[in-house]
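From the thread on structure requests for the teaching lab: each student submitted one protein with a one-line request. Submission from student K.M.:

"Model Dephospho-CoA kinase from Hyphomonas hirschiana VP5, tokens only."
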Amino acid sequence: MIILGLTGSIGMGKSATANLFKDAGIPVYDADAAVHALYAEGGAAVAPLEDAFPGVAHKGAIDRQKLRTRVLDDPEAMKRLEGIVHPLAGEAQLDFRRRAKDDGAQFAVLDIPLLFETGGNRHCTYTLVVSAPADIQRARVLARPGMTEEVFESILARQMPDADKRARADFIVSTAHGFDFARDHVRAIIALMKRIADGETP
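Reply posted by the TA:
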């Protein structure tokens, strides 16, 4: 089974692009959704995160805003957080891969925000970066409720620069011209992945 790793910096349209694959019937692993499930009431990350950062749990779930405040601009705290969450998210991803393979999927997509930063690209057959110009990215992110320049810059500081991601990618999808434009690119990539899965040389 071909694994296509999909990534992109904040505000680039990564999640919307992942949905284009879902709409086409392609299995998509959503790393953010997996983490949300880990943080939710009864999630596997709740107890260890509360132990590591007392006070971040509320009514049996992790308060993401409190957790963000605790780890923001604190590299050591971020390392502790990642040391707890990444292995649990990795288990969820393996479960997804097994289910997709058992269902007979020719290829599947892994939607992972920090794909290159965490080395997750090593486990992918191909990689795709969703990109847009910096001014469009900034406008999109700052339009989000509760977002500030400080938080935006802090998030950017933890992410590999867009140019570096694009240089490493096998495919680039631009969202600068709207999602009809991006959908055409996604359809072409799906067709190519299916040809490769059928044994054709790319």
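TA comment: Residues 10 and 51 are 29 Å apart (CA to CA). The first strand starts at residue 2 and ends at 7.
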